Amino acid sequence: MSTKQGRLSSKTAIITGAASGIGKGTALLFAEEGANLILVDISEDKLNEVAAEIRELGGSCEVVCGSVGLMKTAEEAVALAVSTYGKLDILFNNAGIMPVGDILDYAEETWDQVLQVNLKSMFLMCKKAIPEMLKANGGSIINTSSVMANLTEPGYTAYSASKAGIIGLTKEIAVSYTEKGIRCNSIAPGWVETDMNVKLADSMGGMDKLYPIIKQQQPLGRMATTREVAYAVLFLASDESIVVSGSHLAIDGAASAAI
């Protein structure tokens, strides 16, 4: 694989939610930039397809199929990174789910599932990754939050709560570990061309039903591509952002700036 600038050459990265969407887009870009990858997702078939695509292009990666909400998945991913590549430099906590429902109808089990996948998973991954990053004298953690951590709509009870919690977790880790060489930042995507949003459009009767909403909410007038989001993640993962820690980067086409 020919790299563009090799901004991640010799670095090892774990990416969760790597089988599709932002996770897949970032995995492909990271591989182009020279990173060794550990790809994590619960969807085994799609995960292996992404891994095969990276390997066909000359990239190096291994996969872990499992729920990010379980400690054993975090343990396996971090152990695999160290045993295969000798160290861990980057953690991109990206996996997430978005069940919709009014709080009065929302099942307690659904609430627990969303918080486990969207927020607890990041706690678990960070808990296992940080000791290895300390051994490597530093690292970068990027957590996927959402524009909906601060601006929301009816029906996103657990999703908005989980995404807001990610901001707090990110800031705490940054304050605790930046002096020790570990940076931690979060990103807040707006509308992005992901499988999740395609399913949302289908439930509304097609993409032509969804786009008027996007144009109203996101001044850019369209969804971002996963590749466009991945470039922001690449910046935060690379040494180019060495003094950036504790930040919350909006990648939303000015959605969070609009009235």
UniProtKB/TrEMBL annotation:
The keyword Oxidoreductase applies. The keyword Chaperone does not apply. InterPro entries: NAD(P)-bd_dom_sf, Sc_DH/Rdtase_CS, SDR_DHRS6-like, SDR_fam. Transmembrane segments: none annotated. Coiled coil: none annotated. GO terms for biological process: bile acid metabolic process. It comes from the Bacteria. SUPFAM superfamilies: NAD(P)-binding Rossmann-fold domains. GO terms for molecular function: oxidoreductase activity. Keywords: Oxidoreductase. NCBIfam families: PRK07231.1 (NF005559). Belongs to the short-chain dehydrogenases/reductases (SDR) family. PANTHER family: DIHYDROANTICAPSIN 7-DEHYDROGENASE. This is 3-oxoacyl-[acyl-carrier-protein] reductase FabG. It comes from Cohnella abietis. The gene is fabG_5.
